[in-house]
Each structure stands twice: as C-alpha cells, then as structure tokens.
Fold:
Amino acid sequence: MRVAAFFDIDGTLVLVNTAPLYARYMRRHGRARRRDLIRMAYYLLQYRLNVLDIDRAFERASDLIRGQDEAEIKAFCERWYDEVVRGYLVPGMLERVEHHRRAGHELVLLSSSTSYLAEPLARDLGVEHLLVTRLEVVDGRFTGRAVRPVCYGRGKVHWARRFAGERDVDLAESYFYTDSVTDVPVLELVGHPRVVNPDRLLRREARRRGWEIVDAGGRRGAS
Structure:
C-alpha cells in the first residue's frame, strides 16, 4: 500500500489565513464592499474559536460570485496568488514537501480552500492531488453552491478516506500537517499527525495527545 502526506494550506503551507488576503485583494480591485471584509473577519474569529458553521459561511461568501464567469474568477485568483499569496509560503514546510517527495509518498493538498487557490499552489509545489472545496459551476458560471461535503472538519475525513480507497493508501502509515484545531478529526485518522505552528487550542490538544509539534519557521524572505 502507498503512504500519503496530506497538507493543509492556510497557516500551514501558507503562513497566514488566505481568506482576509483575498477579501482585501477583492476590495482593492473594487470587487468587495467594506461590510464584506467585516463579515470575513467575523467568520475568521469563529474559525479560530472552532465554532464556525462552514455551510453558512460558504453560502454567504458565494453571494459575491454567484452567476459570475468561472474562467474570469480563475484568472483573477491566479493573479492574486502570484502577487500576494506566493510571498507567504513557509520555507520549512516547502522542505517537508520535498522530504516526502523524495520518500516516494503521495503528495496531497487537503484543505477547505477552493481549487482556485489550491491549483496555482499545487503547481508551484509539484503536488499532484487536490482534496479541496469545489464550487458548483453550470454552463461556465457559479451557482453559489459547493460540492458536498465541504472539505472542512469531518468533510476532510470523508475526502481523505475516499482518496485512500481509490489510491490504495494506508492511512495508518500516512502523514497530515495542519495548524488548526478544526483538523483534529484528520489528525486522529492518520498514523503520523504533524501539528505545524499550531493555534492555541490545537497546541494544547497536541501536548495532551503527544502529537509532534513542528516549528516550520516564518514567511519566505522573513528575517
């Protein structure tokens, strides 16, 4: 059986949560209102407290793109990644990706982020497999709905198990890297949980369970 190395994106491969970065980028380009940024900050606080209703959050966030052309949004996100996100990649985690590549492991992005962030990141890192949130598109336009279950919390477990079954992956020998307490269900699923620069709640849980805590360092180019 194969071994997989699953990687969260926000706070793990990327130093920060990318949702506020995207909201500010949209605001700068006239695609979001001030109240959209306030709503994003509210959802981010709920996420950090592990009380976020992900379905409601995605429903409200989808209001910004419902009916819009997918190709145009994809190109916009590519520019955002190139101009903003790439500068936040964590060097220590890029080294971890390379370590697992050399070991012959299946490399997988496992994140609640959408494919419009994950795809350019995966190209940068040479990661083949994406288990991320997929937005429904009909006739080239967003419907405002997401493919269920959203890849968050227990939804990540669903997609990881499905991937393991399809790719003959032994989860008991596999790895998962994350910074967030919302990912405890996946950390429990794999044999080698790795906690990266964790939030306060996850650090406490990792110490209680004896999970390895990885200090991956900071932003690329930072002192």
